[in-house]
UniProtKB/TrEMBL annotation:
Its main location: membrane. It comes from the Bacteria. The chain crosses the membrane at residues 12-35, 42-61, 67-86, 102-124, 144-169, 198-217, 237-261, 273-296. Coiled coil: none annotated. The keyword Ion transport does not apply. CDD domains: TM_PBP1_LivH_like. Keywords: Amino-acid transport, Cell inner membrane, Cell membrane, Membrane, Transmembrane, Transmembrane helix, Transport. It is a multi-pass membrane protein. Belongs to the binding-protein-dependent transport system permease family. LivHM subfamily. It comes from Aromatoleum diolicum. This is Branched-chain amino acid ABC transporter permease. It is found in: Cell membrane.
Amino acid sequence: MEIFLQQLVNGLVVGSVYALVALGYTMVYGILGLINFAHGDLVMVGALTALQTMMFLMGVAPGMSPVAMLTLSLLVAIPVCMLLGFTMERLAYRRLRNAPRLAPLITAIGVSFLLQTLAMIIWGRNYHTFPQLISTTPVQPIEGVFVTPIQITIVIASAIIMAALILLVTKTKLGRAMRATAENHRVAALMGVDTNMIIALTFVIGAALAAIAGVMYASNYGIAHYGMGFMPGLKAFTAAVLGGIGNLGGAMLGGVVLGLVESFGAGYIEQMTFGFLNSSYQDIFAFIILGLVLIFKPTGLLGERVSDRA
């Protein structure tokens, strides 16, 4: 039972991060029908930008409180990623809106490689230690189950952000404009919606979520690297497909479910395979789920709410 509860905690933590990143994928797909494979690399840019900011603050203000340092680092990382998301949409994707779907897909992969290469040039190939500004000393709420303050912070912050996004999309004029643009670009434009602005804002919001997720991911694992965005991005895409890409609630559900499956798989994989595999093979569960969903339920757990534009 202790192993079960511990893996439940671990799954909720990593699933919260996957859900934040998956929201960026599903928002862009809902608006454009585009899978932005460069989205995962915004996670990396957010983490490394925050790291660079922390290093600067430690040099100029070594007595600054950890909470203030983390807040300032986020206030730098989020605008950097938002600007990068806007630039990606404006320069890489806008001209390809009416192109065959393969063209923007290949472009997204190219943008991903470009971002990784630029990050490698700026921050180098080495792994960087990410400062643990929030305590990682575990507490034991239940005998045999350990939870760290950073894990609690990740889950609570993710829940608040996801709730705020749902309110933004469902209760505001911007959200109404986003839903109208997702339904039909041309009709929304005829009704007075600035679809170019709405699409750009969708990329910007998704990039902000990716920046926050990147800082969470790096804080939880204590490392940052120019290639760190690839695997979380791929798993977040799997989470979006699992929940129903184009559906915000589905992206959140898919992220949490995938995190739980991956965590429980890591905890019990040795028993399931009679010692043939160990926890280092936990990534296989994400791809097994992706394959099963695409074969048996391509619309995902909650279905796709986006109209077919074929």
